[in-house]
Structures are given as structure tokens and as C-alpha cells.
Write a structure and sequence with these properties.
Layout: E1 7-11, H1 18-30, E2 34-39, E3 45-47, E4 53-55, E5 58-59, E6 70-73, H2 78-82, H3 86-97, E7 102-105, H4 109-114, E8 122-123, H5 130-135, E9 139-140, E10 145-148, E11 151-154, H6 160-173
Parallel strand pairs: 1-2, 1-6, 2-5, 6-7, 7-11, 8-9
Antiparallel strand pairs: 3-4, 10-11
Length: 174
């Protein structure tokens, strides 16, 4: 169990891309990590774009990001909702300041944009937000996964194996 001592925040709100949330959660748990599902409220069922539910275990306000080793932002339309919460942006900024792994896939880059942490960073995302990423100061690359320091980014569901391989490698070294 490579990640038995690691604690990870998995952010959630409605309209997440089902695979982009569930695949990382299951993959990390396979490696022994503790993954906490964190939403606006604890004990709420959130529904993915394709109808797959997940229940939050903690509310944003319950979380001290310094007590965690990494954070994951799902794709789908969820990031547009997540970036509206100051608590989420605070978590992202703390993780970035502490150089802890931040995983983002698809539209998840919107949260990092709103946290204002992308200046000078190499990233990828769904091509639909390429301009947003570049306008935030990032260098956008059309690759399955891009690792720049503590930020691990990916494009879309077919890239999930590459994304999680690199996220786990970064987390293991951190």
C-alpha cells in the first residue's frame, strides 16, 4: 500500500464528471490512501453529470487543508460551482503554498484560475478552457497529463490512467 499514510481531499458539488471524480477516489483508495469527500455541506448526496451519486463526508468549513497531503478537483460543470466558495479557494491556495499535490482534470482548471495560482505554470485541461488557462497566466499544453511542481493536470476521461499514475507518483514523493 504505497499511500497508506496519505490523506486526500476530493472536492465535490453537483454536475461533476462521474469518471473524473470516481476513478481517482477508487484508484487512491486501492493504494491505501484515505480520501475524504468534501462538499458545501456534510452528508449531502451530490449527483454527477451522468447520474452517479456520491455523498459528502465533510463540509468545506470542516476542513483544515494543512492536515491533508493533497487535493483533487473533479471536472464536469462542478468546478464552475466550486470556485464560488471562498473556502474552496482557500484550500487550493494553502495546498499550493505548502507545495502539496493539486490534481485537476477537464474543467477543474477553473478553480485554480479563481484561486489565482496558475501564473507561470504549465498545465493541460479540456481544450474548451484553454483560453481561460492562458489568460490566467498558464502555459497550456495538449497532452494527456502535465506535471509542473505540485500541480498535476489532465484533459478528460480517456487520460485518467496517465493522470492518476502521475498524481500518485507526485503524492508518493511528497
Amino acid at each position: 500500500m504505497r499511500l497508506a499514510s496519505k490523506k486526500i481531499i476530493q472536492l465535490v458539488s453537483n454536475d461533476f464528471e462521474d469518471l473524473e471524480l470516481w476513478y481517482p477516489v477508487l484508484r487512491l483508495r486501492e493504494e491505501g490512501a484515505t480520501v475524504h469527500i468534501v462538499g458545501k455541506e456534510a452528508g449531502v448526496k451530490y449527483i454527477g453529470k451522468y447520474g452517479v451519486p456520491i455523498e459528502s463526508e465533510y463540509a468545506f468549513t470542516d476542513i483544515n487543508p494543512s492536515e491533508y497531503d493533497a487535493i483533487l478537483v473533479p471536472g464536469g460543470w462542478s468546478p464552475d460551482l466550486l470556485r464560488r466558495f471562498d473556502e474552496v479557494l482557500h484550500m487550493i491556495r494553502v495546498m499550493n503554498e505548502q507545495q502539496k499535490p493539486i490534481g485537476q482534470i477537464c474543467h477543474a482548471g477553473w478553480v485554480l484560475i479563481s484561486a489565482k495560482i496558475l501564473t507561470g505554470i504549465k498545465v493541460t485541461s479540456t481544450p474548451g478552457i484553454k483560453d481561460d488557462m492562458e489568460n490566467a497566466g498558464a502555459t497550456w499544453l495538449d497532452e494527456p497529463v502535465v506535471v509542473d511542481g505540485n500541480i498535476i493536470s489532465s484533459r478528460r476521461p480517456p487520460d485518467l490512467p496517465d493522470y492518476m499514475r502521475e498524481f500518485i507518483n507526485v503524492l508518493e514523493k511528497n
